[in-house]
């Protein structure tokens, strides 16, 4: 049977030594190469072949030499160099050393030309140069090598580099062939048999061609077994006919003569056009008919047994041009060259044509040489030729300057595949209509290697099996090529599917056959020109390698080499993809899929190595048999022959199910653990089971991680944003790893409790203690490795989920849940490593996965951070920057170590500043800013601290320091609007604090209660000054609460301050201006630049309405409005004593007080909304809110009674006019308002 690709062993080097230089007989007669001294050749030496040295194995590696087979011979084992569903290429043996030498000397193939011919029907081949012809029987394992020298030429060849010798082999029967040599001057020599020629150097038969002085023999064409056509440089043709007379073959030469008309003489000049007189391009024989092609014209001749008859001329150039480019041929846009003409079938010819279409749309196509095979049909009536079908070829090689007869068209007998031989490639093209198959056979070293010859079978009735095509590269040995009909599965494929199938085949050839250095073929493709789906093709090849289902897999009996071979081929696959520029066409998901297959192959290798070591130590259902038992359980679900080893079968054919095997291992382990008994024996056995389960999982995930890490550059995977999660991060496997981790952690603690802390010491003791210490140490190491596996896979899973959400619109909640789980898992998995003395592992994991919280925890841990924790913190700040620094600073705050934060080295001052800019810790930030002399940020931070501080004394200190910082900023950097406003804000805040301090003093400073406590004094004050709230109990309760808080040192908000200033009776001069103070503070809140201190507009309006409503209802307007019996002076005196007068008079002295803040009684009668009260008192119940609303409504009822019955609207206007008159007359205001400035006076309008 045929062999599969050879395994990856180093090819054997030949142990035979090279032979000496070949000798040759003088006078241009044939010689035979010999390893010993040549004996004289005499006519009686009839058995001289016995002295000829049979060719030994080549001392250099050839395409046919591998570790399994040395060479192909009839009936021998084939060494395949390429193979797929459409064809196969195999080695037919290397070139003889003599041939290798002359080819090596003709390496440029420009100055030293070389040509080869192969005769598959007889198994012979020959190679010629201008000075030598070598022939040998390649079908034999140790062929005899024949060396011939050309006949002497009567005149020198005009060119600087003479062409190769004109030679051919003549096969008259089944014996050795005869030899035909032709000199450029036209001397023909014929030897009937190679071996017989050696017995007498003069036994050749000679014939001389009648050539002109400027004409030279050029080529020889085999027409039939005994008929040849010799053509010249001026397009003359001579028929060489080998006839048999009296048992001896005799050559005769007859020129082809073209008749000259009715009275003209026949002439050997058969072509009339000048361009056709530059040599013959091709000769095609079809039975007794012969087609001779010049550059433009094809001539048809009829060959008889003794003569030849000219039939007709066909302008093939125009036939092809009109047939290939109808309607455009006459425009001259297309350049055409006829490269070859061969017989296809009776009445049909095939021509190889090269074209350049200047009218092509793209600039690239217009200058590119295109090739096509044109099928020509011959008319039976007049013999004319017509284009039947054009088969275009997409492949076009780069121009080659070497002197090679290319391109040439080869169509073996009854073949449906045509071969086009270029310099360093051969194109296979299907001739079947509708089949677009096109494949290229390319030489690996195309710059130094080339196809110097080829041969094909001309008849299917051969007695010996032979490939239909044999190729001869300059190096690499002879190559046999066979083609097959397309399989059923390939029929009806779309163009894209067919292209993908071809690309997959190319990848397979490279992986299974291209790994051997002696293979002369290249399977590379250009990245931009590779058709088909690269991802689909690569994934299919990778899957077949992993599952060992590829038809090209070598049959390696031993399992370990077979697993290693698969792993190496998977690496070769990605190497091929990279080398050909195909990686850019692979999406990230496909790259990870290919890497997954390699990871599983590596895991299979390592897992089998472990299993193989246990093979002779296992007992069924023991911890050591966990893997084999799990494989047996898994394989029961598949069809396995009874005589087949299930464990080996899994590793050989089921490695792709490695993840599913781990599921079975885990479930088997869990079942075994649950079945264990108690006691010391059960605990020890539990340790053995956990150790074994951990080993299996760690071997797999470690192998996968190692392969992934080693090949990250090869696959160029985006590890920061993977498209799919790695297979070891699948949910079932992650759950198993997590459970094994916690099981191991618990087991370690249980063993320490049950066996004593001595087992946690290094295993230096003897006996059972040493064994248990070793077990404990192994468990700790496994726990550390499980932690690493969990972290690596969880992080990858999170990254894949994040990318899926961003790019593919995945479920956002999935990513959030996974992020939360990852944040919880990291410390829970890494930090316990400290307790098992795996501190360095903990640091490594935390560093690798950027777990800055754990790094901070470790560095400050009393054990983990005892040695160099502070140094590590500085190292991490330098290494990770602000991400780590911010976590560290937050930890300092959470642990109450603010001093450590504020005492950071000044080189990290910028980081601390940035931390405070992003984190809301103004109570610490201002200290840092002041230390760094950054006064403006310090003032801003103090402003925020002041807003949050509730203590009145503390607010006074904070605002004072803030004002000093603002002043310092202005002194250093000058005045700006922002700096001025900051200073104004602090002044307003200090004014507000001063108001509250003054108010607090008022509440507890009654002369009769100076010896009482502040709370008792407050109670006495409230009893005397809340008489107007007897009908408004909710307001009274609120007033008492606010007053007590103020006395206790708590700073009130603007709404609370307004209530305390306006709800009390405000009797006497000391309270008459409190309403104006409340208005001034409310106005200050409105113009404040700090948005966080400003009340919402609705609540601000409620406070404003409440102030004026309470001002208006403070006095008895029914009494004041009763003017009967009162003088004008008395009435004005009463108006001056009202709270309305005092308030209007006070605010008239406030600079810039807005007119919109002065309300009329009618406007003040608007009630607040329930929502506004709820927003102010969020902690109060609905019943309490409703009670407050009722008191507001009570105030409004009193106000409305004064408006309706007391004429309050007109009285208030009178008060406003009175204020204007008093201001103009300089009448004293009475008690001051205690706030504001009097540098300007304003008018009061109602």
TrEMBL record:
It comes from the Eukaryota. Pfam families: Nucleoporin_C (PF03177), Nucleoporin_N (PF08801). InterPro entries: Nucleoporin_Nup133/Nup155_C, Nucleoporin_Nup133/Nup155_N, Nup133-like, WD40/YVTN_repeat-like_dom_sf. Residues 1-69, 1227-1246 are annotated as: Disordered. The keyword Protein transport applies. Belongs to the nucleoporin Nup133 family. This is Non-repetitive/WGA-negative nucleoporin C-terminal-domain-containing protein. It comes from Dioszegia hungarica.
């Amino acid at each position: 049977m045929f062999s599969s690709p050879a395994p990856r062993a180093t090819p054997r080097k030949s142990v035979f030594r090279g032979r000496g230089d070949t000798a040759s007989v003088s006078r241009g007669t044939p010689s035979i190469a010999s390893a010993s001294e040549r004996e004289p050749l005499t006519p009686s030496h009839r058995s001289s072949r016995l002295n000829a040295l049979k060719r030994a194995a080549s001392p250099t590696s050839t395409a046919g030499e591998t570790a399994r087979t040395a060479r192909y011979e009839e009936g021998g084992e084939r060494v395949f160099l390429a193979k797929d569903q459409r064809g196969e290429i195999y080695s037919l043996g290397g070139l003889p050393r003599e041939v290798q030498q002359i080819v090596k000397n003709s390496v440029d193939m420009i100055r030293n030309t070389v040509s080869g011919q192969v005769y598959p029907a007889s198994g012979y081949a020959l190679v010629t140069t201008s000075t030598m012809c070598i022939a040998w029987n390649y079908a034999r394992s140790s062929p005899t090598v024949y060396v011939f020298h050309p006949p002497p030429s009567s005149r020198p060849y005009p060119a600087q580099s003479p062409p190769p010798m004109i030679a051919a082999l003549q096969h008259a029967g089944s014996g050795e062939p005869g030899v035909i040599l032709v000199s450029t001057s036209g001397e023909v020599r014929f030897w009937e048999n190679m071996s017989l020629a050696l017995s007498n150097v003069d036994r050749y038969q000679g014939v001389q061609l009648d050539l002109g002085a400027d004409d030279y023999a050029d080529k020889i064409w085999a027409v039939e077994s005994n008929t040849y056509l010799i053509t010249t440089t001026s397009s003359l043709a001579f028929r060489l006919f080998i006839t048999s007379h009296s048992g001896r073959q005799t050559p005769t030469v007859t020129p082809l003569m073209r008749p000259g008309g009715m009275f003209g003489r026949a002439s050997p000049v058969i072509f009339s056009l000048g361009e056709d007189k530059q040599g013959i391009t091709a000769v095609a024989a079809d039975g007794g008919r012969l087609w001779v092609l010049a550059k433009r014209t094809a001539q048809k001749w009829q060959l008889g047994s003794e003569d030849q008859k000219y039939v007709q001329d066909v302008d093939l150039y125009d036939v092809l041009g009109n047939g290939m480019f109808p309607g455009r041929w006459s425009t001259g846009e297309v350049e055409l060259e006829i490269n070859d003409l061969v017989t296809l079938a009776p009445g049909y010819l095939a021509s190889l044509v090269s074209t350049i279409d200047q009218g092509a749309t793209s600039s690239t196509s217009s200058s590119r040489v295109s090739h096509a095979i044109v099928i020509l049909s011959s008319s039976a009536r007049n013999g004319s030729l017509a284009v039947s079908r054009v088969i275009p070829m997409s492949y076009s090689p780069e121009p080659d300057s070497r002197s090679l007869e290319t391109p040439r068209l080869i169509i073996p007998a009854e073949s449906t595949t045509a071969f086009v031989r270029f310099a360093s490639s051969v194109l296979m093209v299907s001739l079947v209509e509708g089949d677009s198959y096109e494949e290229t056979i390319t030489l690996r070293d195309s710059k130094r290697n080339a196809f110097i010859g080829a041969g094909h079978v001309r008849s299917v009735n051969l007695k010996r099996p032979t490939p239909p095509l044999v190729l001869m590269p300059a190096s690499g040995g002879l190559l046999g090529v066979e083609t097959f009909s397309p399989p059923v599965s390939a029929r009806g494929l779309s163009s894209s599917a067919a292209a993908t199938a071809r690309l997959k085949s190319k990848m397979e050839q490279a992986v299974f056959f291209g790994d051997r250095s002696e293979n002369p073929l290249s399977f590379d493709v250009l990245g931009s020109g590779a058709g088909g789906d690269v991802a689909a093709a690569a994934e299919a090849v990778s899957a077949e390698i992993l599952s060992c289902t590829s038809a090209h897999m070598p049959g390696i009996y031993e399992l370990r080499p077979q697993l290693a071979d698969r792993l190496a081929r998977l690496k070769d696959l990605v190497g091929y993809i990279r080398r050909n520029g195909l990686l850019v066409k692979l999406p990230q998901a496909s790259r990870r899929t290919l890497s997954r297959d390699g990871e599983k192959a590596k895991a299979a290798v390592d897992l089998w190595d472990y299993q193989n070591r246990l093979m002779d130590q296992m007992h069924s259902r023991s911890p050591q048999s966990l893997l084999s038992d799990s494989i047996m359980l898994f394989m029961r679900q598949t069809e396995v022959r009874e005589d087949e080893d299930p464990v080996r079968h899994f590793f050989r054919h089921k490695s792709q199910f490695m993840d599913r095997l781990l599921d079975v291992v885990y479930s088997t382990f869990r079942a075994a653990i649950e079945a264990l008994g108690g006691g010391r024996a059960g605990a020890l056995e539990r340790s053995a089971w956990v150790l074994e389960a951990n080993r299996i999982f760690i071997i797999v995930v470690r192998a996968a991680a190692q392969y992934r890490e080693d090949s990250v550059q090869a696959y160029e995977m985006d590890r920061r944003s993977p498209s799919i999660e790695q297979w070891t991060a699948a949910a079932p496997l992650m759950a198993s790893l997590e459970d094994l981790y916690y099981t191991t952690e618990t087991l370690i603690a249980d063993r320490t409790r049950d066996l004593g802390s001595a087992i946690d010491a290094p295993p230096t003791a003897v006996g059972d203690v040493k064994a248990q210490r070793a077990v404990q140490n192994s468990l700790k190491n496994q726990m550390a490795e499980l932690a690493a596996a969990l972290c690596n896979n969880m992080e990858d899973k999170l990254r894949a989920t994040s990318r899926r959400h961003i790019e593919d619109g995945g479920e956002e909640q999935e990513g959030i849940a996974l992020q939360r789980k990852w944040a919880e898992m990291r410390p829970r998995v890494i930090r316990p490593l400290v307790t098992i003395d795996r501190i360095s592992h903990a640091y490594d994991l935390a560093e690798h996965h950027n777990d800055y919280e754990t790094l901070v925890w470790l560095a400050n841990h009393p054990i983990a951070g005892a040695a160099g924790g502070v140094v590590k913190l500085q190292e991490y700040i330098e290494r990770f920057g602000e991400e780590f620094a911010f976590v560290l600073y937050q930890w300092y705050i959470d642990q109450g170590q603010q001093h450590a934060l504020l005492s950071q080295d000044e080189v990290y001052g910028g980081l601390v500043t940035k931390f405070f800019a992003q984190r809301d810790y103004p109570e610490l930030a201002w200290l840092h800013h002041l230390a760094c002399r950054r006064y403006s940020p310090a003032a801003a931070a103090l402003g925020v601290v002041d807003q949050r501080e509730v203590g009145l004394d503390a607010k006074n200190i904070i605002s004072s320091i803030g004002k000093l910082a603002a002043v310092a900023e202005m002194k250093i950097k000058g005045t700006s609007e922002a700096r001025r406003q900051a200073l104004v804000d602090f002044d307003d805040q200090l004014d507000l604090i001063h108001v509250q301090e003054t108010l607090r003093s008022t509440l507890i400073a009654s002369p009769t209660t100076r010896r009482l406590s502040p709370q008792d004094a407050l109670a006495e004050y409230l009893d005397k000054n809340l008489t107007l709230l007897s009908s408004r109990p909710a307001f009274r309760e609120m007033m008492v609460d606010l007053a007590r808080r103020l006395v206790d040192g708590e700073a009130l908000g603007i709404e609370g301050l307004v209530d305390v200033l306006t709800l009390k009776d405000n009797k006497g001069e000391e309270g008459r201006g409190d309403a104006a103070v409340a208005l001034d503070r409310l106005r200050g809140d409105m113009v404040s630049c700090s948005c966080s201190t400003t009340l919402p507009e609705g609540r601000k309006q409620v406070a404003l309405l409440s102030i004026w409503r309470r001002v208006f209802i403070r006095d008895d307007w029914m009494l004041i409005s009763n003017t009967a019996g009162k003088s004008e002076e008395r009435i004005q005196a009463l108006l001056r004593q009202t709270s309305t007068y005092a308030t209007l008079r006070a605010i008239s002295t406030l600079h810039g007080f807005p007119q919109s803040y002065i309300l009329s009684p009618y406007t003040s009668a608007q009630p607040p909304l329930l929502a506004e009260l709820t927003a102010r008192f969020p902690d109060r119940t609905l019943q309490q809110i409703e009670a407050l609303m009722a008191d507001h409504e009570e105030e409004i009822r009193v106000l409305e009674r004064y408006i309706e019955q007391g004429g309050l609207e007109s009285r208030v206007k009178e008060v406003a006019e009175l204020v204007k008159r008093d201001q103009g007359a300089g009448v004293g205001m009475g008690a001051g308002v205690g706030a504001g400035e009097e540098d300007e006076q304003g008018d009061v309008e109602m």
